[in-house]
Amino acid sequence: MGATDETAVSQSRRRLIVLTGPTAAGKGTVEGILREKHPHIWLSVSATTRAPRPGEFNGIHYWFLDEEEFERRKRNGEFLETALVHGMAHYGTLLQPVLDHLTQDIPTLLEIDLQGARRVKQEAARLGLEVVYVFIAPPSFEELKRRLIGRGTETPEQQAKRLETAKVEIAAAKEFDVVIVNDNAERAADELWNVIASEYDL
Q1: If you compute the radius of gyration of the chain from its CA atoms, what whole number of angstroms results?
Q2: pLDDT of 202
Q3: 29 appears as a binding residue in the annotation
Q4: 3-class secondary structure, 113
């Protein structure tokens, strides 16, 4: 990390909000309600080496990078965290945009999976970056299973794999600073806002 990054970290006066939760816990729904009510919140945009899907736009859904560019940025320490997903495509959170928004006192939110949150925790400690880790939990495992099957976007085999992963993720909730049970998306969004507002004196 260069001197510019170190200065940016030292000048960050607010804490990054990292949001995690198992599949079908309703993170996207909660996040959507939150951003409708509070559009000034900035959601970090991940970088990826996979090709854009129909309707996806660079800089809005993802930053689409080729393998060479992604690896160059990784070598240069430009990522807060990276991961190889399904052995096919790289994903990562670019550090500088996060720092830029934090130093401007803009509420900054990063939605990421459990492994990514753990990597952020390791890297944030090295950088001296303050982070609040929030876990969105389902009311119960049975409700999570009902939601997952009900949305009908995965095969039975994929559902089984996601449910096994969800068990591991739910068990890790104790690693987080705040746990919000999503039994009602509006209420959960308000609870998440209260966490953000307390960090940004809003």
Answers
A1: 17
A2: 76
A3: no
A4: coil
| Residue 92, annotated as binding a ligand | no
Q: What is the mean pLDDT of residues 28-47?
A: 95
Identity of the residue numbered 34? L
Confidence check: pLDDT of 174 > 70: yes
Residue pair 162/67 in contact (Cβ under 8 Å)? The answer is no
Q: Do 41 and 196 touch, CB atoms closer than 8 A?
A: yes
25 is in an annotated binding site: yes
CB count within 10 Å of CB 22 equals 27
Is the alpha carbon torsion for 113, 92, 110, 15 positive or negative? positive
Place of tokens 């390791």: 122
Q: Is there a binding annotation on residue 21?
A: yes
Find out whether 93 is annotated in a ligand binding site: no
Percent of the chain with pLDDT over 70: 93
Residue whose C-alpha is closest to residue 5's, from 109, 115, 98, 134: 98
89 annotated binding-site participant: no
CB atoms within 10 A of CB 121: 16
